[in-house]
Amino acid sequence: MTKNNFYIITGGPGGGKTTLLERLAAHGYAFVPETARQIIKERLSMGASPRPAPLQFATEVFERDCSNFSMKGSLTSLLFFDRSFIDSSWQLFTCDKDRYSEVKPFLQTHRYNNKVFITPPWKEIYHTDSERDQTFEESVEVYEQLYDWYAQHNYRLIELPQTSVDNRLNFLLDHLTN
After folding, report:
1. Is 107's pLDDT higher than 90?
2. Which of 66, 94, 154, 168 is 20 to 30 A off residue 56, Cα-Cα?
3. Model pTM?
4. How many CB atoms lie within 10 A of CB 67?
5. Distance (Å, whole) CA 44 – CA 130
């Protein structure tokens, strides 16, 4: 199942994904928030550490990402995703290649629009917060690894320019029709 109306915005932490998605929402577009941040918020609210062990965290994020995709499967309007199960499958791969092998068929049979928007590292806007504790250097590494990972999974990456959120919005919307 390919959902051509499902668009991913990905990239390393702190590249402006959420800000852009919130601007899309202000213009009437729906989006699915980043799963990992939701899990971290839930854990912090319960007094737990932000993340469980890496494999457990990657598995939980992946399962929720798959559920987000499947539960919205009948939707025909545009839907944007702040990251996706492609991102969390990369986390699985880095933690446990056997576990990744188990989920790989799902990645092949469940596809988002082939155009994936990626935010490059942007030091001037990068900051940490209660859910984002990675350094800027780690953000750069995540960006590079995700870029390669999406390309390996046959997605066409479109790098968002480092410009105002309104210019990014216009850039993205222009690419939906081209």
Report:
1. yes
2. 154
3. 0.92
4. 12
5. 9
